[in-house]
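Next comes one such specimen:
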Amino acid sequence: MKKNFFERVTRPRALGILIFTGVPAIIGGGLIWWATGHSYNLVVPYEIALYAISLTIASKAPDLEH
């Protein structure tokens, strides 16, 4: 049986994935800020959603076993 994503990814790899995908997401937040006329009304929920997704991914990844 195939393992799901969280069973195959270790915590360091998950954090690397978060960094790799987080930088474009932060740039996306800047684009939202720019597109809405320099208003943080839509950027704040966007950033909260990003943090929630990031914490979920990082918390479900198993620790390295020695």
The radius of gyration is 15 Å. Residues 23-66 form one domain. The chain has a mean pLDDT of 79. The longest helix spans residues 11-35.
